[in-house]
Amino acid sequence: GQNIDQPTEMTATEGAIVQINCTYQTSGFNGLFWYQQHAGEAPTFLSYNVLDGLEEKGRFSSFLSRSKGYSYLLLKELQMKDSASYLCAVRSFSGGYNKLIFGAGTRLAVHP
Amino acid sequence: EPEVTQTPSHQVTQMGQEVILRCVPISNHLYFYWYRQILGQKVEFLVSFYNNEISEKSEIFDDQFSVERPDGSNFTLKIRSTKLEDSAMYFCASEGENEQYFGPGTRLTVT
Fold it and tell me: Within a 13 Å sphere around the CA of A41, how many CA atoms are in the beta-carbon half?
């Protein structure tokens, strides 16, 4: 079966660093995405990993270990506007096509 | 920057009525998707579409649902006879290189 786990909630302080973990068990793994979603809005793309290692993009970095079925999203220099849900999504390839399977999301609250 | 657009932003309908949700994907993309998100729950895959055909559908996507690309630009999701449990945000997405771009969503409320 397909399973994606991430913590339900996290809190952090403005200016700090936070790491959001994601573990997955899926078939046809073809990449892992992190999306940010503010309440009532669409998911917006943050990062993509298909090979093992760290991808850095400004204040956001994402890490993938395919052998461990594990990824994390690292947010640095937290700002209040970073308060949102962070969605881990695995791209699963089957029958020649991709679909995204989403975790339930981690709700991050950044406080002063 | 190209973007996916969806209309309407909010649709209210009575149980048993048909609704059509519309999406305009990014013009040079070939793969399209519908997802839904019930309030407070996770984003769920509904269906993928390529070359004017459904390529994969989830167990949620039953006979009440259909998709089509009527005119080469619009991509529609039709729900034939809505149920209360169809109330959700419906997101269209189109796929470019290594990224699925989501539209802003249509909030469907079934009363």
Answer: 12
